[in-house]
Amino acid sequence: MLDWTDRHYRYFARLITKHTWLYTEMVTTGALLYGDVARHLRFDDAEHPVALQLGGSEPDELARCAKLAEQWGYDEVNLNVGCPSERVQKGAFGACLMAEPDLVSDCVKAMRDVVDIDVTVKHRVGIDQVESYDYVRDFIGRVSEAGCTTFVVHARNAILNGLSPKENREVPPLKYDYVYRLKRDFADLEILINGGVKTHDEIAAHLEHVDGVMVGREAYHNPWVMADWDACFYGAADGASSRDAVVEAMLPYIEQRLAEPGAQLRHIARHILGLYQGQPGARAWRRMLSDSTLLKDGDGGLLLAARDALGRG
């Protein structure tokens, strides 16, 4: 979710669901150790519970970054062992690390040794042409020995060469049965499933077999899908009451962010284009919040104008 689940999107998502765990976009160890830490790690307190997803393969560097995550107040550190992009592979991390379970285990142990927050791992069911269930079973078995108790499993193989990241989310077949089997084989571990999940009914069906469900792009492009999650899956009734209420709640946040140096409305507006997806007038909403001229000097009032353009007053 690089460039997608930044702090602006996460604040917006939190207005819709109060209890769902939120994950940052993947942040590399190099970006934290040699770049602008505040730019990558700052977040609003309203985002809790929130996890920092790290990309890296050097145990010492990951340990230092995990410590930063804890100091900044994150609730979890998640190691990305699932991203298939060639850019990530050049840094020797992401899905290619599935071929090195001993190294992943060392990375997890190094992080767990320096923090008290959870250290979790997100990965695929396999890489390239490896189709054996034993591959992912042995991977989890080895990494769990380092103390990792939570695994987020994208139920597709990662094809490291020949497919784009987008194709890697669509072409390799989904193997939900592999993830279900992992939960049966590792009953004491927390196993979450990821990949291709779009609807409430699909989430509920998966929860019959595993401990949790991660939803990515559907929650981004059609964010209102999250509106009933608190009631249905957390037994809570404090989620968003309406799309219009979310718009109103975004206004103080936008005012605060626009007061920061270099902030622009487009940095926030791009994340909320899908709020009215499927509703009458949604095209007008998206058009206004994508208009560079309107966005250039715009503020929260543009959201109200775009909402009025839906034709409901």
Automatic annotation (TrEMBL):
Keyword terms, alphabetized: Flavoprotein, FMN, NADP, Oxidoreductase, RNA-binding, tRNA processing, tRNA-binding
Residues where FMN binds: 53, 122, 154, 194-196, 216-217
This protein's record includes keyword Oxidoreductase: yes
Active site, renumbered: 83
Top-rank taxon: Bacteria
UniProt site (Interacts with tRNA): 80, 166, 169, 283, 286
DUS-like FMN-binding domain mapped to chain residues: 1-296
Reaction(s) the record says it catalyses: 5,6-dihydrouridine(20) in tRNA + NADP(+) = uridine(20) in tRNA + NADPH + H(+); 5,6-dihydrouridine(20a) in tRNA + NAD(+) = uridine(20a) in tRNA + NADH + H(+); 5,6-dihydrouridine(20) in tRNA + NAD(+) = uridine(20) in tRNA + NADH + H(+); 5,6-dihydrouridine(20a) in tRNA + NADP(+) = uridine(20a) in tRNA + NADPH + H(+)
NCBIfam families hit by this protein: PRK11815.1, yjbN
Family, as annotated: Belongs to the dus family. Belongs to the Dus family. DusA subfamily.
Stated role: Catalyzes the synthesis of 5,6-dihydrouridine (D), a modified base found in the D-loop of most tRNAs, via the reduction of the C5-C6 double bond in target uridines. Specifically modifies U20 and U20a in tRNAs.
Name of the protein this chain belongs to: tRNA-dihydrouridine(20/20a) synthase
Lineage: Bacteria, Pseudomonadati, Pseudomonadota, Betaproteobacteria, Neisseriales
Gene that this sequence comes from: dusA
